[in-house]
Amino acid sequence: MSKVRIADFDLDSYVKKVSLEDFNRDFCHQVRWNNRLKTTGGRFFTSDCHLDFNPKIYEALDLSTFRKIVRHELAHYHLFLAGKGYRHRDSDFKELLKEVDGLRFTPRLSTGKSYHFYRCKDCQKRYRRQRKVDTSKYVCGHCQGKLQEVEDE
Fold first, then answer.
1. What one-character-per-residue DSSP string does the chain give?
2. CB 85 within 8 A of CB 95
3. Pairing relation of β-strands 116-120 and 31-33?
4. The pLDDT of residue 132
5. What pLDDT score was predicted for residue 108?
6. In terms of CB atoms within 10 Å, which of 4, 47, 115, 145 comes out highest?
7. Comparing C-alpha atoms, which of 32, 76, 39 is closest to residue 53?
8. Measured between alpha carbons, how far is 56 from 49 in angstroms, rounded to an integer?
9. pLDDT under 70 in the chain at which residues?
10. pTM
């Protein structure tokens, strides 16, 4: 299946299809996109058994990786309904995830952040900062030596 735009992607039918093909069980609850998710690929809610998925993950990664994320959330779902250990630390969850080839962790997306790198002239300690540091004002936190900006190492 080739990847389609998120506006044209039928998430509900895709999750139901993955559930039947990979778990041999029906998915009978709601599924939706959640734009507020930042670092996670999806979430399972025990209160009403619905699933949320991160649309940024779908757009950034290939469909096979997204399918593994769907498997991860479906593993939570099916184990919870079966009354087994559905949490990340539970052996039931780890075994089922390995069995269906689901992802344990969501791959990192590039944050688009740029960093500034500094090195102490005396002790050679390196620092990475998101904001630029005024090297005439700030010194090394270990030896009080002067800092100089360097290229990414």
1. -----TTT--HHHHHHHHIIIIISS---S-EEE-TT--S-SEEE-TTT--EEE-HHHHHHS-HHHHHHHHHHHHHHHHHHHHTS--STT-HHHHHHHHHHT--SSPPPPP-----EEEEETTT--EEEESS---TTT-B-TTT-PBEEEE---
2. no
3. unpaired
4. 92
5. 83
6. 145
7. 32
8. 22
9. 1-2, 111, 153
10. 0.72
Residue 119 confidence (pLDDT): 96
Pairing type for strands 126-129 and 51-53 reads unpaired
| Residue 30, number of CB atoms within 10 A of its CB | 13
Q: What residues have CB less than 8 Å from 82, skipping those under 6 apart?
A: none
Report the amino acid identity of residue 117: F
φ, ψ dihedrals at 39, nearest 5°: -110, -10
Find out whether 65 and 103 touch, Cβ atoms under 8 Å: yes
Give me Rg for the CA atoms of the chain: 22
Q: 């996109």: which residue's tokens? A: 33
